[in-house]
Amino acid sequence: MTAEWVKIRFGVSSAREVELEVDPAEDIAAAFDLAMAENAKVLWVADVNGHRHGIVLDKVAFVEVEKARPREIGFGPT
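Above: the chain sequence. Below: its structure as tokens.
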């Protein structure tokens, strides 16, 4: 059984957000907590496409974790 992807959005102090689809959320939340506890400068996150993103931790204003939703196509009722 494969895990579902999740969407994570990091708010940074420049009023911009970085939104990534990652798998699974629990690993990212734990990595974020550990990086903050160790006073790390950057948290490296790999998205579902294998791209790595460096998040500068002293610029993070908030972290939002959202469960995956089915992707809808078209204009019909759901």
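Residues 6-51+60-67 form one domain.
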